[in-house]
Automatic annotation (TrEMBL):
<protein>
    <recommendedName>
        <fullName>Maltokinase</fullName>
        <ecNumber>2.7.1.175</ecNumber>
    </recommendedName>
</protein>
<comment type="similarity">
    <text>Belongs to the aminoglycoside phosphotransferase family.</text>
</comment>
<keyword id="KW-0321">Glycogen metabolism</keyword>
<feature type="domain" description="Aminoglycoside phosphotransferase">
    <location>
        <begin position="275"/>
        <end position="393"/>
    </location>
</feature>
<keyword id="KW-0067">ATP-binding</keyword>
<keyword id="KW-0320">Glycogen biosynthesis</keyword>
<dbReference type="InterPro" id="IPR011009">
    <property type="entry name" value="Kinase-like_dom_sf"/>
</dbReference>
<dbReference type="Pfam" id="PF18085">
    <property type="entry name" value="Mak_N_cap"/>
</dbReference>
<feature type="region of interest" description="Disordered">
    <location>
        <begin position="54"/>
        <end position="87"/>
    </location>
</feature>
<comment type="pathway">
    <text>Glycan biosynthesis; glycogen biosynthesis.</text>
</comment>
<keyword id="KW-0808">Transferase</keyword>
<feature type="region of interest" description="Disordered">
    <location>
        <begin position="158"/>
        <end position="184"/>
    </location>
</feature>
<keyword id="KW-0547">Nucleotide-binding</keyword>
<dbReference type="InterPro" id="IPR002575">
    <property type="entry name" value="Aminoglycoside_PTrfase"/>
</dbReference>
<feature type="domain" description="Maltokinase N-terminal cap">
    <location>
        <begin position="14"/>
        <end position="136"/>
    </location>
</feature>
<keyword id="KW-0418">Kinase</keyword>
<keyword id="KW-0119">Carbohydrate metabolism</keyword>
Length: 489
């Protein structure tokens, strides 16, 4: 019976948009049922569940460095930094954990047929049908109510905590609607007020999106959504105490237009996006300043940065041999970082037009989780602000390449100038330009790999950028100035 349940569940999960193991032989190797959020005579019965997915060794021939074969969870006994260290330098845990909130009904519910997970005999409930709770309005209301009520659900081996921070004006009567747009997690919109983002692939430790929103809200930065609260849990996993953030409730941004779609429309209509680019530059500068105050800052050597970029390039070449032709120019560009130092701090990490929403109240920046291909440990490392600046410049280039035409190159150049001027308050000197060139090249190399793996038809866009950047390396400059705002302590 348990095998049958696992089979049904695995089958349902494998088809979900958020499942990262498509095309691989996945096995369901663990199932943690957190405490009931509902009384046992209440329907639907709702519970958050965590599914462990593993892959046969031949599906994953390169386990993360430093991990013993067969190693499971690392010891994680304290919140915050200890968790990070535990997950830390050796990279990701050697399996994936997915969160599946389940809504159990006594009989099939035709309107939820698309969200069915399994039919089973549950130890507490008897014969039931389990549905993806994010698709069941009754279950969504139970989740929101638990958050508004700051519930703690304790079991001998687990605890689920709902932590509201700023929920005045929110009501559990707000109509829940699953978000239908593109995303890696699952969001539920509550009326016109709030959005609950349910994290799917879990990482042990603090979620970067929650942590960054909390810090930026505290600093009074208006360029991000307000954080209304979060859900986290602690549980025993393979004999260790672990904890993870499970979801975040944020302000629903009303009248939000996706920056990528907007830029493409504007370009297709032959209109300028320069003023919007300048606003994005100012928003990013404000966010960076607040992140400098809220999180640790450090200095790193240009040499170390060049080394990291070079290593990333070598990995990318093996995946995309088209990069070989540009190796000399790319390596020379990275090499120009060598003599100086770089200030590093908490940054967005994957800043592009798709991470921006234009609202009547101005641009809002979302999704502070960094590049999806990096481990949490890598994404926690402070980085240079040039990472985000380069990310947006690459995005303007993508927009130009996606709407080719006689005016596209000039449109991209205008966006670029307006964004840089607004961010840095003037032109860049040769040293800044050299650092920016290295970061743009590194980002384009990352994009080549991203496109090979996700959208092979788009790979010509970043390959074209690598070609252009490698031919135009600035000459005669060795020193690195690390703060493009010129606003250094
Ligand atoms: N606060 C918000 N209000 C309204 N819509 C939002 C909000 N945050 C995100 N969105 C919408 O949800 C989409 C996915 O958000 P994102 O944070 O990138 O999710 P994921 O990390 O799951 O991919 C965005 O492109 C945007 O359309
Ligand atoms: O939004 P995510 O964090 O999932 O970012 C990943 O996917 C992005 C594509 O959706 C990808 O962005 C690349 O394509 C964009 C156009 O679709 C373009 O605006 C970006 O500049 C380009 O990097 C991103 O790199 C990847 O991490």
């Amino acid at each position: 019976m348990a095998d049958d349940q696992n089979g049904q569940l695995l089958n349902a999960i494998s088809r979900a948009r958020w499942f990262a193991g498509k095309g691989r032989r996945a096995e369901l190797t663990g199932h943690t049922r957190l405490g009931w959020l509902t009384d046992l005579d209440q329907w639907p019965a709702v519970r958050l569940e965590i599914i462990e997915i593993s892959y046969p060794p031949d599906e994953d021939p390169e386990p993360a460095e430093g991990q013993e074969p067969g190693m499971r969870a690392e010891p994680v006994d304290a919140p915050g930094s200890a968790l990070r260290q535990a997950q830390g330098t050796s990279g990701a845990i050697p399996y994936e954990l997915y969160q599946v909130p389940v809504s159990y009904h006594r009989a099939p519910v035709p309107e939820l047929a698309h969200a069915e997970l399994a039919r089973l005999d549950d130890a507490d409930l008897g014969s039931v049908v389990g549905y993806d709770a994010t698709q069941d309005p009754a279950a969504c209301r139970i989740l929101l109510t638990a958050l508004l009520d700051a519930r703690r659900v304790r079991e001998p081996d687990s605890e689920v905590r709902f932590t509201p921070t700023d929920t005045e004006g929110l009501s559990a009567d707000d109509d829940p609607q699953p978000f239908r747009g593109q995303q890696s997690n699952t969001s539920i919109m509550f009326g016109e007020t709030a959005m609950l983002k349910v994290f799917r692939r879990l990482e042990l430790g603090r979620n970067l999106d929650i942590e960054t929103h909390e810090a930026l809200n505290k600093a009074g930065v208006a360029d991000v959504a307000r954080l209304y609260g979060w859900i986290d849990a602690g549980w025993r996993h393979h004999g260790h105490d672990v904890r993870a953030d499970l979801g975040m409730l944020v302000e629903k941004l009303i009248g939000a237009e996706d920056g990528w779609g907007l830029a493409l429309d504007v370009l297709a209509q032959g209109r300028s996006f320069a003023e919007e680019s300048a606003r994005l530059g100012r928003a990013l500068a404000e966010i960076h300043a607040a992140l400098r105050d809220a999180f640790p800052v450090a200095t790193t050597s240009g040499e170390r940065t060049a080394q990291t970029m070079t290593e990333r390039f070598e990995v990318a070449r093996a995946i995309a041999p088209a990069l070989d032709a540009y190796a000399d120019g790319v390596l020379a560009t990275f090499g120009r970082l060598g003599a100086g130092t770089l200030d590093v701090q908490r940054v967005h990490g994957d800043f592009h037009l798709g991470q921006t929403l234009r609202t009547p109240a101005g641009w809002k920046i979302i999704d502070f989780e960094g590049e999806p291909a990096k481990t949490l440990a890598e994404r926690l490392e402070p980085d240079s602000v040039w990472r985000d600046i380069a990310g947006m410049l690459r995005s303007f280039d993508y927009a130009g390449a996606s709407v080719p035409g006689p005016g596209s190159a000039a449109w991209v150049a205008d966006c670029r100038t307006a964004f840089l001027d607004a961010y840095a308050g003037g032109g860049l000197d040769a040293d800044d330009a050299a650092v920016l060139r290295a970061y743009e090249t590194d980002k384009a190399v990352y994009e080549v790999v991203y496109e090979v793996r996700n959208r092979p038809d788009w790979v010509h866009i970043p390959v074209g950028a690598v070609a252009a950047l490698s031919e135009q390396t600035p000459s005669g400059t060795q020193a690195v100035r690390s703060d493009p705002t010129g606003d250094k302590e």
